[in-house]
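During the no-cost extension, the postdoctoral fellow (Dr. R.K.) reprocessed legacy sequence entries with the updated structure-token encoder. One reprocessed record is reproduced below for audit purposes.
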Amino acid sequence: MSKALCTVTVGILDWEAWAPGLADHEAWRAWAGGGQGVPRDDGSSPAVGPMAPSLRRRAGRNDRLGLEVAWRLSGPEGSSAAVFGSRHGQVARSAVLLESLAQGLPLSPMDFSLSVHNASGGLFSIARQDRSASSAVAASGEELAAALLEAAGLLLEGAPEVLVSVHDEPPPPLYDGHWSREDGSFGLGLRLAAAGGARLTMSLMESGPEDEGAVQGLELARLLARGQGLARWARAGRAWVWELGA
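Re-encoded structure tokens follow.
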């Protein structure tokens, strides 16, 4: 058995997930129980209903995937630190800007202003008038692990709760052949605390057979829908393992 290089444990107070055709816990439990692969992407987006229409119109699809689950986990009052994780972030907006430049067209001010990686967190903060600490991470497919490590650090520093939102959609066709592909569009949200709730332990292992095409966020969503057990993701000579207990 390979050796654990590091291990962190957090408490999951609540979770939410969204993907095309999977909008609530019951649907996710049916998906997880059926042993299905990555949910089919039909291009649909969540409504993010509570968000003001003026801001919702500015949110791209990847933003909405993260904002939907983050909003579901946020109460009407109070605030908490937030970590948004996305491999591709605002690459769709960047592609539009690059194509405009190539064609000699003026750039869209809205696309330009929201083309930064922390745009989803910024929209969330503005929409909720929430000045709590917020960060955005990217880790070449390991965003869930990176976001959980960031959240665990915030909890160790004294944050009572941390909101984590991991979300992604595939880049536009412009980037085909220039990235290691993993299909699927989804948002996974977690409300974490140092103690309480379901106990989640994450370990980084020395090595393991690779899981080609697996998506970290979806593997944890599958585990959460099942309610207990193990989930695993391995690539590039290392493996992340998540264990969920009562």
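Residues 92 and 172 are 6 Å apart (CA to CA). The chain has a mean pLDDT of 90. The remaining legacy entries will be reprocessed before the final report is submitted.
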